[in-house]
Amino acid sequence: MLFFCFINLLILEQTTIGVIEAIFGLLNLYFFHSAHREKSKKWHNYLLITSVTVTIFYIFYSADLRAGSVYWLIILPPLYCLLAGPKLGLVYTILLSLPAISFLFIKSDIESYIPHRSVLNFSLAYFLSFAICYLYETQYTKSNQMLHRMAFEDPLTGTKNRHALKLFFDDFNQKAMDPFQEKYEPEVTRLLMIDIDHFKSVNDEFGHEVGDSVLVEMAELLQSYTDNHHVYRIGGEEFLIIQHGTSTQAYEFAESIRKRIEKNVFRTHQNNIKITVSIGIAELKRGQTFREFLRVADKNLYSAKNKGRNLVHYSSISLTEAV
Asked: Mind spelling out the 3-state secondary structure of 3-18?
C-alpha cells in the first residue's frame, strides 16, 4: 500500500488517495511487524480489513472507471475469507457487494460501457474469487486438522500422545522462563502416571483385539474424570493425567481413579474383564526437562508396583535418586 502511496503522490498527483494509502499503509506495516513477532491480536485482522476496504472503495468511487480501479474490488472477497474466516468472510463479501455493484452500475453509464453487462461480469468474478478462496481455505483447514490429529493424538484411544506431552512441557517451561511474565506463585502442576497391572496377561488370555478394546474403554473412563485435553497415552498400557492443585488433592484424585477402575468391569467381545492400575504421582518443576520428569514419574510408578500394585504412590524424589 505504501508503494501505491508514492505512485499517487509523486506521479499521478492524487494527494487525497496518496494520504489515505500512507496512513493505512503504515498501520498495516505495524500489523505485519506484530504478526512477525507472533504478537498479533484479533482486532488487527478486523482493522486491516477495514483499512483495505476503505482505501479500495474510495479509489473505486473517486477514480475514472476506465483507469481499471474496479479490478481492485476483486481482491476483497479472498481477503475477507483469509482474515475473517469462511463464514464471516462470506457475510462481508455479500454486504460489500451491494454498494460495489451500485457504484459500478451508476459509473458504467458512459460511452462504450454497458451497465448491465459490466455488473454481471463483475458479480461473477467477485463471487468466484471468494468461492475459490473458500474451497482452498476449507480444504486447508481439514488437512491441517487431520495432520494435527495424526501428529498429536493416539490413533487407538483418541487421547493425546507423547509428542503432545512434549509440547506441553516445552510450553510450560517457556512460560516459566519468560522475564516479562508477572511474578507470582503458580498453582502446582502434578502428573499422574497410570499403568495397567498385568496387562500382558489380558493380551495373552483374550487376544490383542480385546486388549485394544480395554485400552479404549480405559481412555474413556479417564477422560470422564478430567478434561480430555489433560489425558495422554504415553506407552502401551501407560496413561498420564495432568492435575493442578495441592498434593492432598492429587493423591485423593488418583485414589478415586484407582478405586473406580478396580470396581469397573470392562465388557468387550463378550468378555467381562477386571483390571487394576498402579499410579505414580510426580510434581512438575520449573526448568525440568522432559526426560528428567519421566525418570521421576517412572520411579514413583514402579515404587507402587513393587509395593504390591493396585495402589497410589507419591513421594518427593530428587533427580539423583531417580537416575
From this structure: HHHHHHHHHCCCHHHH
CA gap 274, 172 in Å, rounded: 36
Neighbours of 31 (CB within 10 A): 17
Q: Exactly one of 21, 237, 238, 283 is catalytic; name it.
A: 237
- What's the pTM? 0.63
Signed CA dihedral, 311, 312, 316, 322: sign only: positive
pLDDT tens, position by position, 113-129: 566 777 888 889 889 99
CA dihedral angle for residue 175, residue 179, residue 182, residue 187, rounded to 10 degrees: 40
Residue spans of the domains in the chain: they are 41-150, 162-322
pLDDT class for 106, splitting at 50, 70, 90?
confident
Q: In the predicted model, what is the mean pLDDT of residues 172-179?
A: 63
Rounded to an integer, what is the distance from CA 129 to the centroid of its chain?
27
Q: Work out the pLDDT band at 263, boundaries 50, 70, 90.
A: very high
Kindly tell me the burial class for residue 103, based on how many C-beta atoms sit within 10 Å of its own C-beta (0-12, 13-18, 19 or more): middle
Task: Kindly report the three-state secondary structure assignment for every residue of 246-266.
Answer: CHHHHHHHHHHHHHHHHHCCE
Supply φ then ψ for residue 151, to 5 degrees.
-85, -35
Contacts of 277 (CB under 8 A, 6+ apart): 194, 195, 196, 197, 257, 258, 261, 262, 310
Q: What is the pLDDT of residues 127-143, one digit of tens each?
A: 999 999 999 888 888 88
162-322: what CATH class?
alpha beta
Q: What is the mean pLDDT of residues 80-93?
A: 88
- The grid coordinates listed for 197 are 497391572
**254 contact partners, CB below 8 Å, separation of at least 6:** 192, 243, 279, 281, 312, 314
What are 64's three cell numbers? 475514472
Distance (Å, rounded) from C-alpha 182 to C-alpha 168? 20
Distance CA 188, CA 245 (A): 6
User: Side chain identity at 272, as an amino acid letter?
Assistant: N
Residue 237 a catalytic site member: yes
For the chain, percent of residues with pLDDT exceeding 90: 20
